Amino acid sequence: MTVAHLVSPSTQTRRSRLAAAANPVLAGPSTSAVAVGETSGGEVACVTLANAHLRLDVAPSLGGGLTRFDYRNDGALTPIFRRCRHVAVDTDPEQLACYPLLPYSNRIGGGHFSASGRRVEVPRNRDGETLPIHGDGWLANWEVADVVERESVRLTLDRRDGKPYAYRATQTYALDGPTLVITLDIENTGRDALPFGLGIHPYFVRDASTELSAAAGGLWLSGGDWLPTRHVQAPPAWQFGVAYPLPDSIVNHAFTEWSGTASVVWPKRRLSLTVSADTDYYVLYTPPGEDFFCFEPVDHPINAVNLPGGGVAHGMTLLGRGECLTRSFRFTVERTGLRAMAGAKAGRRQQ
């Protein structure tokens, strides 16, 4: 099945209904399905991928982000990422389940940086934020390029006229059994070489017993504006060398010297998630009292372009015209405690 570029709302509505009817998302034990359909509000077209393990909804017009990422647990769909409760044209991207970070992650101090001896101005891109944040990919309308083998979808974004960052980008979402693979590709189409960075911003479901394991050697302390001020070794409570309960207090820091592998455990739900990425950093955000937390695999810390040595010294990649950068992120869901449960049942049968 080939998914065409998004067209007029009326044409898209007719196509969506036909596609959704022809390709139901309730996949069987060894099948996968993809459908392009409307949300309940009828305002945003989404791409749905599903197999025997996972269900994924992608909203191209909402930054190419996810509105849900669920695990099929004994027939029921259990959210792994926080579900977007309101999917419509006016949806705030920060209410999504996940969105891309490109061509840089997080904030840029002062709205400018230096590159090759020249001052580069970066415009503020979001109401309520005093600094530019997360680039512009998460705020853009992406196009659906194709669906490959009914298990992945590829989105494209053309920012050749962007300033100061001119680029073309691709997002690919693919299901591989119980694993979601997200791949970001970006090409510098501008005249000047600039430091580029990539990452993703998922919102994970959180309950009182949620645990995180994500060993890191250090972190950047931040000031009241959340910009980094000093690099220190990770304190014991934030080392996360083994699965450890999330802190009750707020954390909003960039962690360094990450191995590229982390795990999230939900003991009450008997589920775990393994996260892997080809990056050396992550940003952890734990707002108190919320039912979510953010673990953001990124290839550079906050405000990397203005840290000593510049962005390239802190994980970003200097891309000249026509040069490209690729990052990949994997999320594998597993049920936990199954062997213990099976052993307990066998013991009862023998009694």
Keywords:
351 residues; mainly beta; Beta-galactosidase, Chain A, domain 5; seven-stranded antiparallel beta sheet; globular; disordered N terminus; disordered C terminus
Give the helices and strands, then pairings.
Blueprint: H1 9-22, E1 33-38, E2 45-50, E3 54-59, E4 65-73, E5 76-81, E6 98-101, E7 112-115, E8 118-121, E9 143-148, E10 152-159, E11 167-176, E12 179-188, E13 194-196, E14 199-205, E15 211-213, E16 218-222, E17 228-233, E18 244-245, E19 252-256, E20 261-266, E21 271-277, E22 281-285, E23 292-298, E24 317-319, E25 324-335, H2 338-350
Antiparallel strand pairs: 1-2, 2-3, 3-4, 4-5, 6-14, 7-8, 9-10, 10-11, 11-12, 12-25, 13-24, 14-23, 15-18, 15-20, 16-17, 16-19, 19-22, 20-21, 21-25, 22-23
Q: What is the CATH class designation?
A: Mainly Beta
Question: Main beta sheet: strand number and arrangement?
Answer: 9 strands, antiparallel
Can you tell me the number of structural domains? 1
What pattern of helices and strands is seen along the backbone?
HEEEEEEEEEEEEEEEEEEEEEEEEEH
Please give the CATH architecture.
Answer: Distorted Sandwich
- Give the C-alpha Rg: 21 Å
